[in-house]
Amino acid sequence: MNKKLKEYYSARATIIKALAHPTRIFIVEQLEKGERCVCELQEMIGDDISTVSKHLAILKNAGFISDDKRGLKIFYSLNMPCALNFLECAKKILKNRARHDLALTCK
Amino acid sequence: MNKKLKEYYSARATIIKALAHPTRIFIVEQLEKGERCVCELQEMIGDDISTVSKHLAILKNAGFISDDKRGLKIFYSLNMPCALNFLECAKKILKNRARHDLALTCK
DNA sequence: TTACTATTTGACCAAATAGCCAAATAGTTG
DNA sequence: CAACTATTTGGCTATTTGGTCAAATAGTAA
User: pLDDT tens across B37-49, in order?
Assistant: First the structure.
């Protein structure tokens, strides 16, 4: 792989990496339902608010979500619904795995 | 988030994490074209063969690919084509970004 | 059996990531 | 302006990940 190609794959990996965290998956799925402010997400997630804020920054930099400041609050919303397709793919794998584990158990 | 839910999201994150690496994206896209042995992939990628092997193990554990040993060689193939949907989503984001950067440049 | 090829595994180090706390920033309200 | 609320940023440590080398494993062939 030459340098140019490597950079291209790295850029794509960075985007995927943004979804590769339990909290960030949760956030994306919440935002599917509509915009949420940081404090609402923080309450659902339960981590320190600075931690939640950093996760949001990662999703935003990757391009999955965008923010809108209104008064004191900042509302985040999903702007790449295609992220959900992939989350579905991960779910599908988990389901297959569960079925397989069950098959083993019943042997 | 309770413990059970957290585990569920972590399991999904582990699957997505498997795709969150330039080399592993490359591998999945190669396997889309058909099965490949480790040595073929190693040659295309250029990293140490043990490195490639570890990337393959990660994709296999996640459930994206499977292996078939025939003689000395081990052939890997893709068994979750839905992975490609997501890789497409990452591509789309990159394209949007490029269009946006261009717009800024032309202002 | 010995030598050879393909691949995986383990030990190790360097770099990246995650989470928490404290401090900084920005907007609001009295 | 001072006090307050919502959020981000910086600094720190602990954990995870990625890569390399050497050794182990497995199949083949002489």
Answer: 999 999 999 999 9
